[in-house]
Write a structure and sequence with these properties.
The protein is mainly α. It folds into two domains: about 60 residues, 434 Repressor (Amino-terminal Domain), CATH 1.10.260.40; about 40 residues. It has seven helices and no strands.
C-alpha cells in the first residue's frame, strides 16, 4: 500500500528542507506537515497542488499513481518542449519497420538534434 506521508518526507529530506520550511512554503504549520508525514491527516487539494509545485512533481506522483510511460518535459525551454510534443505526435502511432521517414519526420528529428546539441 502507498505511504503518502513517506513520499512527502522523502521529497522534503531529499531537498534538505525542514518541516517548518515546507510548511511556510505551502501555508501550513510545522505540526500540520508532521501530521501529513505521519499519515494522521491528508492535505486538501490546494495544499497538494502547492506541495507538488514546491517539489516540482506531478500530483499523480505525489499521491502514488505511477505512470511508467510518462515523459516529463517541465525542465525544458519552450522550444525544446514544443519539439518533444511534435516528436510524440508524429511518432506515437507510427510503425516504421522497413519504412523510410517522411519529410516531416526528418525535419522534426533535425530540429531535435539542432536544439539539444546547441543547449
Amino acid at each position: 500500500m502507498f505511504d503518502f506521508g513517506l513520499r512527502i518526507r522523502q521529497l522534503r529530506e531529499s531537498r534538505n528542507m525542514s518541516q517548518e520550511e515546507l510548511g511556510r512554503r505551502v501555508g501550513r504549520s510545522k505540526p500540520v506537515i508532521s501530521n501529513y508525514e505521519n499519515n494522521i491527516k491528508f492535505p486538501p487539494l490546494e495544499v497538494l497542488i502547492s506541495i507538488s509545485n514546491v517539489f516540482n512533481v506531478s500530483l499523480d506522483y505525489l499521491v502514488g499513481i505511477e505512470k511508467k510511460d510518462a515523459l516529463y518535459i517541465n525542465n525544458l525551454n519552450e522550444t525544446q518542449s514544443n519539439i518533444m510534443k511534435l516528436l510524440y505526435e508524429e511518432f506515437s502511432d507510427c510503425n516504421l519497420k522497413g519504412k523510410e521517414l517522411s519529410n516531416r519526420q526528418q525535419k522534426i528529428l533535425s530540429m531535435l538534434l539542432v536544439e539539444f546539441l546547441n543547449s
